[in-house]
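Input chain follows. Return structure tokens only.
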Amino acid sequence: MEAQIQEIKTWLGIGSINLFGLPMSGKDTVGVQLAEKLGAKFLSSGMIVRAMEQATNQNLTGQGKLISSNVFYDWVLPYFEREDLWKYPLILSSIGRWSGEEDEVMAVAKNSGHTIRAAVVLQLSDQDVIERWEAAKLLGDRGLRADDADPQIFQTRITEYHEKTLPVIKHYQELGLLVSVPANTSRDQVLANTIEALASLARRTRNFLPEL
């Protein structure tokens, strides 16, 4: 694995890798672990939005809906310009979930020096996601978030992914930047499979940068 990690580091530079997947697919878990392996900084769209909701005393996502693109641009995209991130590659968790946001995300990332070199989709079926949600609810290990506690709201999040985020993922695929990783195995195996898939992409696209 160490050789693959070095391969990814050389290819990535201070670029970005954007992770996508259904709720409960492990985006943040894999993202944090991947960032540690690559010496990168981790940015989660969900974490940023929830922090801003708290800071501004707003509840824009409480019913499972994605925030509007205008709010997303105002709250999340400025992170790319943060001085403390300039020298680091970035691992992104679902930055730009709504169809149409991906071009703006890619442009801002490129202008800040963090060109998006890959998008990873952690593949789980809806049934897998529901089973994980039911297990997590029994264990109480999701922080008692309202959007995870209510089954109707959780289903809305799944619907939002299919209707709004899958077109984003398709766009990355059309650009040749997408890798798909099965996420129905152990966390360690998902991470290993993600690293293997990214190393393979690095070999294929070593000298390729997407044209925006």
